[in-house]
């Protein structure tokens, strides 16, 4: 997903608009691969090399550079807000001392660092069928679920094996608090393309229960990392002094409560937590009650820090 995810509801319901109305200086990030970020000085999106990255590069390069840019333009520390993949990126980026020194606080919606308790039926079937390896073996490097080849592939995965009529629920779990018109609007803009390598990295995490760098296989790992297995991202390196806020839901099939609890154990900091039993993965973006249920709490957390930093 891209930065437009923060503006998919009405102005009264979308976090991007709400933060601006509350007086925050709002900067919207779009990582590589999304429709807004296909520019490159030498490559086109048709080139294999254009797609040679996973969320690791999105964290250590894209997000790090965004934070640096906002910090340098505004001369103030930054509030980070991330959802889902944006939280994996945030946690990996905040381990880097040169990034965290520019950050005032982070608010993470559906925080993910571990994924081995995912229960989404379509995701689990794709993992079991090794869809990530299949796609790479077919020479597909751009993962665009609007393309005919991937639509056909999804149809064949669902056909007679799994109920995919409600695609969102089969991927994210049951969402409680938005209507069908929101779903139609969501699919007008989402999902954006990503890389097949990113899917592979996420599926590695589901299979192995790790929060680690990309696994290239034994020999390339030795060459790149100097060890057989890719090194883990050490969450305890995020400073205890960094204020963190996390919101997560009981019906989220991607951000499982067990995985969130594991993340919390590994952090030095004790984040402020908002747990909503009836919320699913996309409710944190699209709920018609999001302002009352989630965003007011997040904004109060930012205000309690006594700064008016850039968001």
From TrEMBL:
Domain AB hydrolase-1, residue spans: 19-284
GO molecular function: hydrolase activity
InterPro entries recorded: AB_hydrolase_1 (IPR000073), AB_hydrolase_fold (IPR029058)
GO biological process: lipid catabolic process
UniProt keyword annotation of Signal present: yes
Keywords, sorted A to Z: Glycoprotein, Hydrolase, Lipid degradation, Lipid metabolism, Signal
Family: Belongs to the AB hydrolase superfamily. Lipase family.
Protein name: AB hydrolase-1 domain-containing protein
Phylogenetic lineage: Eukaryota, Viridiplantae, Streptophyta, Embryophyta, Tracheophyta
């Amino acid at each position: 997903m891209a930065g437009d995810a923060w503006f998919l509801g009405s102005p009264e319901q979308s976090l991007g608009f709400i933060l601006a109305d509350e007086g925050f200086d709002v900067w919207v990030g779009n990582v590589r691969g999304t429709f807004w970020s296909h520019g490159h000085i030498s490559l086109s999106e048709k080139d294999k090399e254009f797609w040679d990255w996973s969320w690791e590069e999105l964290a250590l390069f894209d997000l790090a550079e965004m934070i640096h840019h906002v910090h340098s333009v505004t001369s103030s520390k930054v509030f980070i807000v991330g959802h889902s993949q944006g939280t994996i990126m945030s946690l990996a980026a905040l381990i880097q001392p040169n990034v965290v020194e520019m950050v005032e606080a982070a608010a993470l919606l559906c925080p993910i660092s571990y994924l081995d308790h995912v229960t989404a039926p379509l995701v689990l079937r794709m993992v079991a069928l090794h869809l990530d390896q299949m796609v790479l073996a077919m020479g597909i490097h751009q993962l665009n679920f609007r393309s005919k080849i991937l639509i056909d592939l999804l149809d064949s995965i669902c056909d007679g094996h799994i109920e995919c009529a409600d695609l969102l629920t089969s991927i994210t779990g049951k969402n409680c608090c938005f209507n069908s018109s929101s779903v139609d609007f969501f699919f007008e803009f989402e999902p954006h393309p990503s890389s097949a390598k990113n899917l592979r990295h996420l599926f590695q995490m589901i299979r192995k229960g790790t929060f680690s760098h990309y696994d290239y296989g034994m020999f390339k790992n030795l060459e790149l990392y100097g060890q057989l297995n890719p090194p883990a991202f050490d969450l305890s390196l995020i400073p205890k002094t960094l204020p963190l806020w996390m919101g997560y839901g009981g019906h989220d099939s991607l951000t499982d409560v067990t995985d969130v609890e594991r993340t919390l154990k590994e952090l030095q900091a004790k984040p402020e937590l908002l747990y909503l039993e009836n919320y699913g993965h996309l409710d944190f973006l699209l709920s018609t009650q999001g302002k009352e249920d989630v965003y007011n709490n997040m904004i109060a957390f930012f205000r309690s820090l006594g700064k008016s930093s850039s968001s």
